[in-house]
Amino acid sequence: MPRAHRRPQTTTAGRLTAFTAAATLSLGLLGMGTAVAAPAPGPTLLTSSTATAVASTLDIRAQTGQWSLALGSIDASRNRLYIAVAYSPSQVVQVDLSSGVATLIPLGGSFAPVDTAVSPRDGTVYVSHNSGHEQGISVLDPAQTYTDASLPPVISSGLTGNPYLLDVGNDGRVYALHVNQHTISVIGASTSPDRLNVVQTLTDLNSHDGYMAIDNDRDRLYVVSPVSNTLTVIDTNAVPAAVLGVIPLATSPVGVGVNAQTGQVLITSSATNSVSWLTVANDQQSAVVTRTESLVALPTGASSTSQLQSISVRADGTTFVVANVYPSNQVRSQVTVIPPVVSAATPVTGITVGYGANGGILDPRAGGTLYVPNGSQGTVSEISDVTLSAYATTSELGSPSSMQASLTRSDARKITGFVEFADSSTAVLGSAPVDAAGSASVTLTAQPVGSRSFTASFTPLRGTRISATGSETTTTAASTTAFALSAASVIEGGSATATLTVTGNAGVGATGPYTFTTAAGDVLASGTLTDGKATATFQAPPAGTTSLVAHFAGDASYSASDSEAQNLVVTARVPDATTPTESGAVGGPARVSVSGFLPWEDVAVTLHSDPISLGTIKTDGIGSGTLTFVVPTVTPGSHRIVAVGVTSGRVTEVPFTVTPAVGTGSGSPAGGSESALASTGFELAANLWLCALLVLAGFGTVAVAARRTRSIR
């Protein structure tokens, strides 16, 4: 990962300013509920917005008492940040990035540390001391604990001047730039026997008052000088390291950086307040400018002596340029953020940080946080991509509803602050702190059924306010439907009563429609609830055990629901048949009544034992009916009338005696005229009986049909 440097500017301590989030209005004052920290968002992500901003600030001075912070480096494998303390006594700050806890490591002496570098081989830390009489480079073992009685070793022999800026190559060799001597001292790798020795000196580098950046992806070290207006290219893979070329520059450079993805070299110019992207030729003797972007203008009150401090390029191509703004105890420093592609949608932006910024320290890991030591203040500004997400939440009527949002940093570290929530008319509904999980939520009093949008906003410590739109939806409340039967069993053809209740948490009684059915879906009763209750009386289903269910269709407050099934036992009636008289004469009228059959069932009636059909009875709603018939011509004597239900198969019978026709029988007198009269009289009587039977039969049929029709209605 490339690393860029600019000399730090050490000044007197500036005023310590407390950074706070934008003021917000407590929801409790609005009578809408209370603001609470939300659990991890479970609702659906609706929209999100991302901005590069100061996500947090490390207060080194509050933790250690030290404030004059210089340059530093990252140990990604140990999650540590090292920053040189440019003040006496000589110390370096070690920050545990997982906790934000800062500790001081003593280096000994009163010389002023300036820069740090970490070996990619084993995490050895190097600290340069830029002091005329105590020049040197401290070498720290990351596994050791140092005290005033046990200090880290210092390399001083072999150095050609005051070491200033430091970089470490892939092979572990350390490069120390001596800005006034035009030289670089090369120290042996921490894993080699020469770990405390200068193994090479690169001279005549035109590096006066210069800066350098290393590209370990391509084994190149770049050194620029604003005095000679040159870019020197050094091969860090060669042993010894070798100068490959010196490239003249059109403008006076005040900083250098490298894009690790493309290999391009970036140069800043104070004269034009811009940064340019250079593609170095293969012979390392020339470079072509492929892109130039203007930096954000310095803030009001900035002195002309303000200086650009460093260039850092994140893996996604985002470029950060740190400017130390003077007077550093009165005007905040500034970081220009240049997106990979500049457009109207993604412009160049500026972020103010603390006072006396001494460059940027870019974390090479995912997220690429830029740590900016504020040398006049004793703080470190953490610049990261901050994403605010708003969610679509759902609650039931009668239950509290909520608006939810979350805040995340691109480096996955914790973020603090408040999220403000406003409705569609921009009226503030409340604010909530961001909890440890990065979430914030405002709980509202119960809302009516429907959907409402809201805007969640976050104002970072430094940077652009970001907003995202979410929604809160209140649905009808869940309902519970239940019923109780008046009896667990009824007789076939009878009726049953069910009492229905529908309950829920909407705060009102249910009023929607219901149906009461068999499990097969046959509707037994229907109606409308009143205050969550209803009573339904229905005719019992056919004999047997029937599973019954109550269905609530829902209303404006409650959603639909079904009850649990209950069984109703319907006891079948015992089929029976009766006759008004136990006998009937051949050709004469007779009547038979049946009961205990299915409602509206056809019952076939026959005279046995020939058998002879007497007709069909259509039962009424309780399974009963009557048939009037003419006694057929059969042998007089004992017979049976048998009734069989066509649908149910139920069978019943009744004894019936057939007697001879009226006016006939053995012993009747002989004689033609008497016989004719008797016959005539019999025939006349039979015909009269038949007519009467037909009339009665027709009347009975109409009566049965009328009864059925009335029942169906």
TrEMBL record:
<dbReference type="InterPro" id="IPR011044">
    <property type="entry name" value="Quino_amine_DH_bsu"/>
</dbReference>
<feature type="signal peptide">
    <location>
        <begin position="1"/>
        <end position="37"/>
    </location>
</feature>
<feature type="domain" description="Bacterial Ig-like">
    <location>
        <begin position="486"/>
        <end position="571"/>
    </location>
</feature>
<dbReference type="GO" id="GO:0005975">
    <property type="term" value="P:carbohydrate metabolic process"/>
</dbReference>
<dbReference type="GO" id="GO:0003677">
    <property type="term" value="F:DNA binding"/>
</dbReference>
<keyword id="KW-0732">Signal</keyword>
<feature type="transmembrane region" description="Helical">
    <location>
        <begin position="684"/>
        <end position="706"/>
    </location>
</feature>
<keyword id="KW-0472">Membrane</keyword>
<keyword id="KW-0238">DNA-binding</keyword>
<protein>
    <submittedName>
        <fullName>DNA-binding beta-propeller fold protein YncE</fullName>
    </submittedName>
</protein>
<dbReference type="InterPro" id="IPR013783">
    <property type="entry name" value="Ig-like_fold"/>
</dbReference>
<dbReference type="InterPro" id="IPR051200">
    <property type="entry name" value="Host-pathogen_enzymatic-act"/>
</dbReference>
<dbReference type="Pfam" id="PF16640">
    <property type="entry name" value="Big_3_5"/>
</dbReference>
<dbReference type="InterPro" id="IPR015943">
    <property type="entry name" value="WD40/YVTN_repeat-like_dom_sf"/>
</dbReference>
<dbReference type="InterPro" id="IPR032109">
    <property type="entry name" value="Big_3_5"/>
</dbReference>
<keyword id="KW-0812">Transmembrane</keyword>
<keyword id="KW-1133">Transmembrane helix</keyword>
